[in-house]
Amino acid sequence: MRRLFPKSFFGQTVLVLLVGLTISHLVSMAIYSSDRTEILALSGGEETARRIAAIARLVDQVPPEWRGRILETVQSPTLRVTLTGNSGLVPETAEDWRGGLIRRFLAREIQAAEGDVIIRLEGPPEPPRGQPGMMMGPLQRHMHMGWFSTGMVEDWPVGAALRASVRLGDGQWLTFGAAIPDPPHLWSAPAVLSLGLMIVTVIVFSLWAVRRLTGPIRTFAEAADRLGRDVKAPPLAETGPIEIRRATRAFNGMQARLRRLVENRTRMLAAVSHDLRTPITQLRLRAEFIEDAEEQAKTLATLKEMEAMIASTLTFARDDALTEAPRMVDLVALVESLCDDLADAGKPVSFAAAEKVAVACRPAALKRAVANLIENAVKYGGAARVSVGADAGDVRIVIEDDGPGIPPDELENVFAPFYRVEKSRGAGPGGVGLGLSIVRAVADAHGGHVRLENRDGGGLSAILEFPR
Length: 468
Prior knowledge:
Blueprint: H1 9-61, H2 64-74, E1 79-84, H3 97-110, E2 117-122, H4 138-148, E3 159-167, E4 173-181, H5 189-229, H6 242-287, H7 293-318, H8 320-323, E5 327-330, H9 331-344, E6 349-351, E7 358-361, H10 363-381, E8 384-390, E9 394-400, H11 435-445, E10 449-454, E11 460-467
Parallel strand pairs: 6-8
Antiparallel strand pairs: 1-4, 2-3, 3-4, 5-7, 8-9, 9-11, 10-11
Helix pairs in contact: 1-3, 1-5, 6-7, 9-10, 10-11
């Protein structure tokens, strides 16, 4: 049952509207049908009583020799009339409310005294004995009508049967057998058509209204995804209902605050980097006057490392991946050219050839991220094997090495700024700990992600994925 229930807010809202309005419509139809059945039954009984009263007055007023001809004339498929000396009709012990109304109406119409009118109202025919519960069609009901009321109407539409006896002025009795047709049932053709039209109307207008209401939610989702890639994205238009405008205004305010925070951080780090370069340059000049060659070399190496840390920190803080404009490039050609450059520089890098993959990206930022992964593979794993793959929705860049790998509990920690796991990646010197942080920032800017996996046969796989 849960599989059939829609997962989207759009589908759930349409389903709730459709089910709720359908149930409401069915309940309203049932109430309306009940009241309509009662009204039609009363009107049908009154119409039949009016016909009986008219015939009784006519027969009572004409000479006796004319009565036979009149009775032959008024006979019809839904009315039988006989003239006898005795009524032969036994009154009901508990008079039905409808029968009582018809009896009083008939007595009033012919101005009859108490006891001059006998009414017996009987329901539709039951199945013949020996066949309980058998469902009868219209033809079978007509066939059994004679069993239901001998001498009465045999071909009327099946419904209530009215038997009435009226005493004439000379003491004779007119006995009537009349049909009161059933009112239309709840599931009649018009009712089913009404229900179908209601369902179609609800579906059409629900799809239009819910799509219009959920449109801002889709816009918010797209804007939130875009904000994760580009904090400088244009603000949302403040349109729609007041609640949507209020939420849009809050979202735009949050985006503006985040943009100011990033800009302030970048300016602060740039200022700090600039201010630190002046004393470092002075220290470098002073280091030239150190007479001890070994001590001078150590000092200059430390100053060089400090400059590299400042440059890397500034690059990470500046986040060039968000300022570079995206454009369509051949990802295979981009990665292959990078691998060729590194291989020409003497690094053990190989590339698995692949078909052209066109993708919208920030080429410089992506090239820097892939270069960081390849350099890590070469530095800690001895060599790098690079491949590019793609499917209908995503592209994937995989860099493999044959190094010792990383402990499973450290696979996520290494993406934190300035975090290094030297002991797990060999004894060689490491960088400042920002390479993988920059890779993750580039992946986030492209709406993708990066992960590290230890290979079964040894070594590490770095996988960079992002949508096409």
